[in-house]
Write a structure and sequence with these properties.
This protein has 321 residues and is of the alpha/beta class. It has nine helices and 15 strands.
Length: 321
């Protein structure tokens, strides 16, 4: 459904149990901007340690419905709620174990549509999530508008957490909050945390660091604009003769083996027709930021300075930590 057809906005919060979804919505209800005279429907798909105060919600003209079983969360059930309450908006606290993609594909009542998707993450448990529930986490964040890491501290590898999100969903806003719920003054990129020297005349990207470069270059124009980089990549190119560019790329695994895909940025080179797809090359190129139709937005465009044949790396797959 296109957003201009939405008459009942749905605000979706997902996250594993006790990740802070209820706390987030409670804080939202307390904000002055939240007050509207029309009815709000709050749908809760799992109950954690934090609870809602029925009296407080009543004062906010909000009704709550709790869904305990996945099989009960159906289009028919949502239509029943819509008919019963005729809400002006819906706040949905959703259990990601029920399948976020299933929710996104679900037929909703007429006029309902997700306008904001927020993922809450307990930063202290994030590495456990990634070790055991990575596929579910990737599914959660793939179309999210914001990912909020709460209970964070500076002794955690927060830049790595951020990269784990950005490689899956570049447009998602990533926030960090400490134990007191105070927003941490994090930089908007991983600049200062990358494993190579951004001030070098030629920035040498290690064979194992391409994933970090890919994410950071996409998010940190100030760190790379006009700089020269050198790295190893595998040739991908257009089938069109005279395209004038190729993509020095690497295979990346964001979730699992089935999720491996090539990543890389356009590299302008008049001799690209002479390159063979799949060849390994080490390139030296200047980074510029341009509006590029292939990206659908402004992004890094490489201008080739030098290209040399190279051997493939010991591990052809790149990671983002």
């Amino acid at each position: 459904m296109r957003e201009n057809e939405i008459t009942v906005p749905v605000y979706l919060a997902t996250g594993f149990l006790d990740s802070g979804k209820t706390t987030f919505f409670n804080q939202t209800f307390s904000e002055d901007y939240f007050d509207i005279p029309e009815l709000t429907l709050l749908i809760v798909c799992e109950e954690g340690e934090e609870e809602y105060d029925a009296g407080f919600l009543e004062g906010k003209n909000t009704v709550i419905e709790v869904v305990e079983n996945q099989e009960d969360f159906t289009p028919k059930y949502l239509k029943k709620l819509d008919k019963k309450y005729r809400p002006a908006r819906v706040m949905l606290e959703y259990n990601p174990l029920w399948g976020v993609q299933d929710l996104e594909n679900m037929e909703m009542p007429r006029g309902w549509g997700i306008v904001q998707h927020i993922v809450l993450v307990d930063a202290s448990s994030f590495q456990v999530y990634m070790a055991n529930l990575k596929a579910l986490f990737v599914e959660m964040i793939r179309n999210a508008d914001m990912v909020d890491f709460n209970r964070a501290s500076r002794d955690m590898d927060l830049p790595s957490f951020r990269r784990s999100v950005k490689v899956v969903n570049r447009r998602a806003q990533v926030l960090f909050e400490n134990e007191e719920g105070v927003m941490m003054d994090m930089m908007n990129s991983t600049d200062g945390f990358v494993p190579y020297d951004l001030n070098a005349d030629v920035i040498e990207i290690g064979d194992d660091d391409f994933g970090i470069f890919y994410v950071d270059a996409g998010e940190n124009p100030g760190g790379y604009e006009g700089k020269t980089v050198r790295f190893l990549g595998q040739v991908l190119k257009s089938k069109k003769k005279g395209a004038g560019f190729f993509v020095p790329s690497r295979k990346a695994m964001t979730c699992c083996v089935e999720d491996i895909a090539y990543i890389g940025y356009m590299c302008k080179y008049d001799g690209s027709d002479d390159l063979a797809v799949g060849d390994w090359v080490r390139i030296t190129a200047e980074v510029r930021y341009e509006d590029e139709p292939m990206y659908g937005e402004t992004g890094p465009v490489l201008y080739l300075k030098d290209i040399q044949p190279a051997d493939k790396p010991a591990d052809e797959i790149v990671y983002f930590t």
